[in-house]
């Protein structure tokens, strides 16, 4: 009798987990659709100026405070 209870409990947990997962996906898809309608797909080329790339750190000169220069 104890084994039947454990098997039934396991099947119930499996069915409930599947149902909750499917509901979670449905709600997530609805949320994603709303975000797409608000903001668009967000893909494509990046906007704005190209990023500055520092190639060599050794050529950078350290700044000197004004008290040292005077």
Please count the helical segments.
2
Unreliably modeled segments: none
Helix and strand sequence: HH
Beta-strand residue percentage: under 5%
Quick structural overview:
By secondary structure, the protein is mostly helical.
Q: How are the SSEs placed, and which strands pair?
A:
Layout: H1 2-39, H2 66-69
Task: Considering the chains and any ligands shown, give keywords for the structure.
single chain, about 70 residues, mainly alpha, 2 helices
Structure, explained:
It is a single chain. The chain is mainly α. Helices cover 60% and strands 0% of the residues. It has helices at 2-39, 66-69. The longest helix has 38 residues, at 2-39. The termini are far apart. The mean pLDDT is 81.
């Amino acid at each position: 009798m104890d084994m039947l209870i454990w098997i039934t409990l396991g099947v119930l947990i499996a069915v409930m987990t599947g149902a909750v997962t499917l509901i979670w996906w449905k709600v997530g898809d609805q949320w994603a659709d709303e975000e797409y309608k608000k903001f668009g797909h967000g893909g494509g080329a990046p906007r704005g100026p190209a990023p500055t790339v520092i190639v060599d750190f050794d050529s950078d000169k350290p700044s000197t405070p004004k008290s040292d220069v005077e």
